[in-house]
Amino acid sequence: MNILFVNACVRSDSRTYRLARKILGKLNGNVTEVNLEKENIQPLTSKTLEKRVKLLIDKHYDDEFLRYARQFAQADMIVIAAPFWDLSFPALLKCYVEAITVSGITFKYTEKGILGLCQAKKLIYVSTSGGYIPDNNFGYGYFQSLAENLYGIPETQFFKAEGLDIIDNDVEEIMQKSLAQIDSIL
Ligand SMILES: Cc1cc2nc3c(=O)[nH]c(=O)nc-3n(C[C@H](O)[C@H](O)[C@H](O)COP(=O)(O)O)c2cc1C
With a threshold of 0.85, does the pTM exceed it? Predict the structure, then answer.
């Protein structure tokens, strides 16, 4: 199995990354990591959007510029690790979403609506938060919706550790509970 690990963790001692390592250790397959901080993917602008539209009109799906979308579409399983920032996730990850959400590669428009073109059967999203994640989870919830409504990925799963910055919370105990949960579920 070809596993794509999208790493949006930026802190050197990231708790989210620690949970992600546990998840990856439980999965069988070849892991390819996309470290978003190292990739430096820029948001779409007038210039880059125009370039992309031209590539798509000319059906140059194999162009280097579209490599993240191709890689995402071809993965068998996707693991996304992102800390809970400003009620969602780091902007680095939104730039990545812009880079992979490409019609003709990860989804396409049809007479009946949108059809997902991604090969992955499952997307796992992992996050940790300083406080508690509200029910309208704009982190995982957003990726759940992308998987269902755009990419055609049938299953999503969420792992988390919450309350890590709440004063007097026992951070290691919370982390151990999350790690044990991953261990028992995967
Ligand atoms: C820029 C920034 C924004 C954050 N926003 C939130 C937030 O909206 N809600 C929350 O509960 N915690 C928030 N936090 C705290 C982080 O979610 C928490 O420390 C998390 O465990 C960080 O993950 P990491 O250890 O993988 O870096 C924020 C932290 C940073 C640095």
Answer: yes
**Distance between CA atoms of 91 and 142, rounded to whole angstroms?**
13
The total number of residues shown for the chain amounts to 186
Mean pLDDT of 35-56: 97
- Domains annotated for the chain, with CATH where assigned, are 2-185 (3.40.50.360)
Q: What is the helix (H) or strand (E) element at residue 152, kind and residue range? A: none
Pocket of ligand 1 (CB under 6 A): 9, 11, 14-17, 83-87, 128-131, 164-165
Q: Pick the closest to residue 15 from 165, 175, 184, 185 (CA basis).
A: 175
How far does residue 140's CA lie from ligand 1's centre (Å)?
Answer: 14
Ligand 1 centroid from CA 129, angstroms: 5
Residue 45: Cβ within 10 Å count: 9
Number of the ligand 1 atom closest to the C-alpha atom of 165: 19
- What are the phi and psi torsion angles at 2 (to 5°)? -100, 105
